[in-house]
Amino acid sequence: MKVPTVGESISEVTLIKWIKKEGEYVERDEVICELESEKATFELNAEEAGALITLGKEGDVLKVGDPIAKIDTSVGRPAGKAQPAAAATAPQAAPQVQNAPVTAIPNDVKTTPVAAAVIADSHVDPATIKGTGAHGKIKKGDVLAALQNPGVALDQELFTRGERREKMSNLRKTVSRRLVEAKNTTAMLTTFNEVDMTNIMELRAKYKEVFKKQHEVNLGFMSFFTKACCFALKEFPAVNGYIDGEELVYHEYCDVSIAVSAPKGLVVPVIRNAESLDMAQIEKKVVELATKARDSKLTMDEMTGGTFTITNGGVFGSLMSTPIINIPQSAILGMHKIQDRPMAVNGQVVIRPMMYIALSYDHRIIDGRESVSFLVRVKEMLENPEQLLFGKDPLKALLKL
Question: Which residues are catalytic?
Answer without folding.
Answer: 363, 367
